[in-house]
Design brief:
six-stranded parallel β-sheet; 339 residues; homotetramer
């Protein structure tokens, strides 16, 4: 039985605690938060929990085998590193760290100490995203043309990172998981409507070394909640609407057929093709539950989650580049070579 | 009775002919198109029409007082200029011309010859867009924060211009009409999936000298048709969904209230405010009919449509800048001083 | 070339004229309407038309080979019979007549005079309804459990018939076409909110001699337009939403599996099954065009449309029974033997 | 602190337990269920709970002041009566009992013993339904014309009652609450697709002694989940869509205006009126929480919930009449005089 400690019982922490309480092989033994009221809420729900306002106490607690970091981004590195140094396995809320340098250090430290490190890219454990990867891998969509996502709603404004780090990060993790390719450059634009605060509305374009483009619109300041992704391919196109209670994934047999115009070798004839739409049934297991099981199993088997860690690093590299581009009004920023 | 000649009877031409046939004070007398089949279709519907494959013949036809140019963008300038030189009034399909220089020449020529020139910014005549302008002008939305629009569908690929010139142009005309302010710079990204062809998928950000941002996603390669605009203000926010058969405009009493944290002068407290939603009834007159009446009335009264022409020019300036930015992967392009 | 005369140029008449003008083999030569303004509209659109306020003149017009009756229900029989007696082919707006007796007389007269008679059950010519029939015929839905339809909107109140005769008639024609079975009894309830006027809101249940039930909700007094039909089967279920611009037909791989409980022979175990959803591409030809071609072809070939006429009669039989049940607050009314 | 015992920990029981655990003034002390696995689930969530498979034990438990009956309908009366006889307060799942006679006995027994009795008409505690009542009471909708509701989904088939008792009961409780008037007769139709089992699909019409009609479509055998109610009035109309995450209530300024035709005293002129739509913000407190607080407060204050009990009885009277009508294929069944 793996003892789990959760640092941060704000918005996402309760979901982490609930899931790690309900899966086999693990049990949450300790929760820390700076806010005592939050700890009181946690104890009401789980009377057996140890709670503390001191994250160091949690990290040093000998009953804690694995530490989950569910705090603002700026503290991910320090807390994650302390936990690794204390010999704990670590699961860190997305994004993995505030910089690629920090992310790399965490990965290296985990490898050196043979501890399991995982970043919480929750969406990659959903039935919908797994279905998209399955369709791409099987070639069902043909050549992939674009990924376009809108992820907007009202709130929650973050104080330490802009909206790309908070919301677009989900799409970067999904793109990395589904397409398994890395952008070569990004361009980002955005705005803050509160003086001195990070951008609350932003647009991010990812360029690749293939005729594929990725784009994310992220905002904390929209009147409606939208979670809608288009994944276009030469053979089929997918609409993924995460707000829909059912039929989240719709596969459209639509596209264009391009032929040479018989009357002119210089001209292409474009024909529009529309066929059936298909909404495959999806695995409806809660993503966080699948992820928790995945993490616990890796600890039990002593198997490093290398792919997931490298994905976490790639995502942070893009976020860093995006923030630089944002400051330059969309000026394109190239991503360095893969480490 | 004003005699109207329509050049181009492809996708949009039939709508122009139908509307100018049904309004008082005008009558379509001649239609030209390079394609004889299209002319046959026109004659079946309107047996009294004169048809020709030669646009010059139409322009010189003495029964034609006003020429409507509904052809690909690249021919707008030449045909519009010929018609003006022949002493005709001119209505040109959006965008007004292929370059700001051409647009300015058309405007100057119309002024010199005292002929009415109008660019067909159709959406600015819809009940929905007029309601948005009314709300903004009345201050109902508070300070305007952003304009965000998605205008995507499958087809129709254009051969002479990219998708920004074809689809995003609608949003640029709407933004100009609703907000009455001019961007100072743009950043655009996009992609073509057909070698040698213009971009079919593109993203355009407009920067202003105020804390406002405009963004348009335009594509000919989406599996679903989307026409959805968000207009965010400090007091209220609007969602304009042009696909909805009714309730195209929804006004949300939603937003944030920002106050200084009493415990810390350095911190802002953000509160999320949600209230009623309201969908005002809209004028449902067909936009093109209102526009046709507007054009005919200006001819009858001899009143130059200066505002509309200047708007047509500003939109072309943005399109030119966007195309340059597109070539530079989002590199921001500043718009020159107002002429 | 078959000369067509259309009696009634109100709501539906213009669609009939437009379609019969555009198909090969026919041409509308004459339109009659009691309202001179409507005739003026018709002439503006089609300058070559003969128009008259006297339907008798149209019926006797030697250029008219086929008469289309698009008038209120109460006049269907008289006008249709006059046209048949004059030796014309006849297409009558739904429902065929005001009573089963009248409908049967029309059918007999057409047979006696060897003239083509057709009732305008428009929906049976749509791609959506034809797809439903195809699915049922192929057995894809399994045993058919129910047909449930909601057909409501604001207006247009009829003065001579209740809302079942005006709106539910569409569903009766669809059920007859898709399921090819005849109800044995009906129960109808409803209300009129205008003293002395026919029911504007009504509910109709059709009973069959199999474990299948049909139900229609029809209203002229709803704030939203709904055209939504559920067709449930033991293997699959269909939702047909005619308001949707695309994906009008959705086939759900959903249902129940019933097994005997191993622990008790008296108990059934019900398992809920949910699988993929599939929206087949549909033929998008305008229904009225297909119907017009069908009618013209039958005239050309001299082939009586017996099935369609019998369907028209069956529908009127149900409507008559429904009106009797309505007066008895749902008291069930049995349908007599098939003629 | 009121001690609460919950009989039945199946579908609805967990919601009852959670809410009574979280409100002030009460605490769930005991849960009973015939299924030991369900009890184990309850204990995992709430380690301090006493659990038992014997409902009698729970009823006699001296720590239990109030008994909640969340079992199949057929056991409501016996369990509720036993609890009252033991001197407990009682909250019974909808519907109150299997017959009006039983319901009346429960009410009388509670009055005699001065114990609080409440039936769980959950929807009457939602912000949406309360807003509808508020609009009706304030006269905002004008004269009320109809209530029409569709409440369908796939499952859960009940074994002891038909779908009217299981699903339409919600609408009967809403109608009673919103309109405060009692039907004079009902007509119901329906079908069972499983031999010997209660109807899984049914239609219920309620007649009143005013020009108002109520109708409910209830089904356990639909491919999609629909919870949509139309409430039509002479001044405004409401659509209540409980599936919508926000804007559940939409108020349409739509309707008809009826005037006498100036040209004919026998004719009414009907004009269709369409105006704004308005979606008021709703109280989003969980309904069951409000209800639990209401119940606990009544116990604390010793105030009998007479109105709620009478409503529970009226609803059962309608259900009984509906079942009789169902057996007679819609034959109308009159409701007796108010007791």
């Amino acid at each position: 039985m793996i003892g789990v400690g959760v640092i941060g019982y704000g918005y996402w922490g309760p979901n982490l605690v609930r899931n790690f309480m309900e899966i086999p092989g693990a049990r949450v033994v300790c929760v820390s938060d700076l806010n005592k009221d939050r700890l009181a809420v946690a104890r009401t729900r789980y009377p057996a929990l140890t709670t503390t306002t001191d994250s160091q106490e949690l990290i040093r607690n000998p009953q804690v085998d694995a530490v989950i970091v569910a705090t603002p981004v700026s503290s991910h590195f320090a807390l994650g590193m302390q936990a690794l140094e204390e010999g704990k396995h670590v699961l860190i809320e997305k994004p993995l760290a505030s910089s690629a340098e920090q992310a790399a250090k965490l990965i290296d430290e985990a490898a050196r100490r043979k501890r399991i490190l995982l970043v919480d890219h929750t969406f990659t454990y959903t039935g919908a995203v797994r279905k998209m990867r399955e369709l791409v891998t099987a070639g069902s969509l043909g050549e992939i043309y674009y990924y376009d996502s809108v992820r907007v709603n009202l709130g929650l404004f973050q104080h330490d990172v802009n909206v790309i780090w908070d919301l677009a990060v989900h799409d970067l993790s999904i793109m990395d998981f589904v397409l398994r390719s890395r952008p070569i450059a990004v361009s980002a634009t955005g705005i803050s409507h509160l003086p001195g605060k990070p951008e609350n509305t932003a647009y991010l374009t990812c360029f690749f070394d293939s005729p594929f483009i990725g784009h994310v619109h992220a905002s904390w300041l929209a009147p409606v909640k939208v979670r809608r992704t288009l994944l276009g391919g030469s053979a089929k196109m997918v609409m993924y609407d995460d707000i829909e209670p059912s039929e989240k994934i719709r596969v459209y047999d639509k596209g264009i057929n391009v032929t040479n115009d018989p009357e002119s070798i210089y001209k292409l004839l474009i024909q529009y093709r529309t066929g059936d739409m298909w909404a495959p049934q999806l695995d409806s297991t809660e993503a966080l539950r699948s992820e928790a099981i995945h993490f616990v199993k890796a600890i039990e088997e002593g198997r490093a989650l290398t792919d997931e860690c490298e994905s976490g690093l790639r995502v942070v590299e893009i976020l860093e580049a995006a923030t630089r581009s944002l400051a330059g009004r969309g000026h394109p920023v190239e991503l360095g070579a893969r480490r």
